[in-house]
Amino acid sequence: NAMESDTYTYEIAGPSRSCFDQIARARIGCVIGSMGWRDNNHSDIGFRIPEYVWQNDGMRENFKRRCLEAKDWYIQYLKTGQSNWQDARAILPISACHRWSMAMNYMALTGFMGKRLMFSEQADTVATAWLMRERIKEKFPLLASYLRPASDWARKCVEHVGDEMAQAF
Question: Rounded to whole angstroms, how far apart are CA atoms 150 and 161?
Answer without folding.
Answer: 13
